[in-house]
Amino acid sequence: MTVVNLLKSRFILVLFILAFLILAAAMGQQNQTDNKPEQIDRLLSPLVLEPEPGLAALVIKDGRVFFERTYGITDLRSRQPITSQTNFRLASVSKQFTATAIMLLIRDGKLSYDTRLTDVFPAFPEYGQAITIRHLLQHTSGLPNYEDLMPLYDGTQPVEEVQISDDQVLSLLQQQRAGQFEPGSRWAYSNSGYVLLGLAVAKISGQPFSEFLRQRIFTPLGMINTLAYVRGKNEVPNRAYGHTKKDNHWVETDQSPTSATLGDGGIYSSLADLAKWDEALRQHTLLTEAELQLALTPVEVAGKGPEEPDGTAAAYGFGWFLNPWQGHQRMWHYGETRGFRTAIQRFPKDRLTIIILANRSDLDARDLSLRIARLILNDSQDLRSAGVRAQQGTR
Question: Does this model's pTM top 0.90?
Answer without folding.
Answer: no
